[in-house]
């Protein structure tokens, strides 16, 4: 196998095959769709980049592709589902949440903060990458960046549109927001469908609804480019 192929895994299945030459993957059978079915939806094997050079969000399928994770420089994995096995203990540093129902935000955030201090790249995953793991990432953004729930949720949703946080998990996020800030400014309206690339979200609220410390819906989109005044850039890829 040529070095070029080893350095460029398929962006869809994560395995090494000549996908640009329409070669069928010998492991999973993936191929580039024909012109007649190029419109079909395909899920990337790559996890979603949430914070450049640090935080990734994905599914158990993403976490099962060790070579692909290594190609992204990921060295640590936060597993939010006790039933999911930690497959590559000799290659990655794992931390697994032990409760299958209640999300242990403080436990997870402590691990993520240590990864950030160590300048390590970390993948946060659940089974599908849609519910539990996005909630952990949202909670981390609230705690580490000082953002409110709506703001943190929108940041994550923009970078992983498949996020679909359930009502029970979202309620835990509301309770965590209240723990951090003494109140929750968020309603279940945040669970409505997200509109990437469209008009600014108003979540059914008035234009001057306050987000966090004096931030209104009118200027939310402007401030999302740099919500806390930090040097974290927007990832538009």
What do you see in this structure?
One of its GO terms (molecular function) is MAP kinase phosphatase activity. It holds the Pfam family DSPc. One of its GO terms (cellular component) is nucleus. The chain is an alpha/beta fold and 237 residues long. The protein has a domain of 134 residues: Alpha-Beta Complex (Protein-Tyrosine Phosphatase, Chain A). The protein has eight helices and seven strands. It has a five-stranded mixed beta sheet. Helix 4 packs across helix 5, helix 5 crosses helix 6 and helix 5 packs parallel to helix 7. The protein is globular. The N terminus and C terminus are likely disordered.
What is the secondary structure topology, with strand pairs?
Elements: H1 3-7, E1 48-51, E2 55-58, H2 60-63, H3 66-71, E3 74-79, E4 93-96, H4 105-117, E5 121-125, H5 132-145, H6 149-159, H7 167-181, E6 210-211, E7 215-216, H8 217-223
Parallel strand pairs: 2-5, 3-4, 3-5
Antiparallel strand pairs: 1-2, 6-7
Helix pairs in contact: 4-5, 5-6, 5-7
């Amino acid at each position: 196998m040529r070095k070029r192929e080893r350095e460029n895994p398929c962006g869809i299945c994560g395995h090494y095959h000549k996908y640009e030459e329409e070669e069928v993957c010998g492991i999973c059978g993936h191929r580039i769709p024909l012109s007649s079915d190029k419109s079909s939806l395909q899920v990337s094997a790559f996890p979603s980049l949430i914070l450049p050079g640090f935080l990734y969000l994905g599914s158990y399928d993403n976490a099962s592709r060790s070579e692909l994770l290594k190609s992204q420089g990921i060295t640590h994995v936060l597993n939010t589902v006790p039933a999911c096995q930690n497959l590559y203990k000799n290659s990655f540093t794992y931390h697994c949440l032990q409760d299958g129902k209640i999300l242990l935000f403080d436990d997870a955030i402590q691990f993520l903060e240590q990864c950030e201090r160590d300048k390590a790249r970390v993948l946060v995953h659940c089974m599908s990458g849609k519910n539990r793991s996005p909630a952990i990432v949202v909670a981390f953004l609230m705690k580490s960046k000082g953002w409110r729930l709506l703001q943190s949720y929108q940041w994550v949703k923009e970078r992983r549109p498949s996020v679909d946080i359930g009502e029970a998990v979202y309620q835990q996020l509301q309770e965590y927001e209240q723990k951090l800030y003494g109140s929750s400014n968020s309603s279940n309206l945040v669970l409505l469908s997200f509109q990437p690339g469209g008009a600014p979200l108003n979540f059914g609220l008035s234009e001057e609804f306050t987000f966090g410390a004096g931030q209104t819906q009118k200027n939310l989109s402007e401030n999302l480019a740099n919500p806390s005044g930090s040097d974290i850039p927007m990832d538009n890829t």
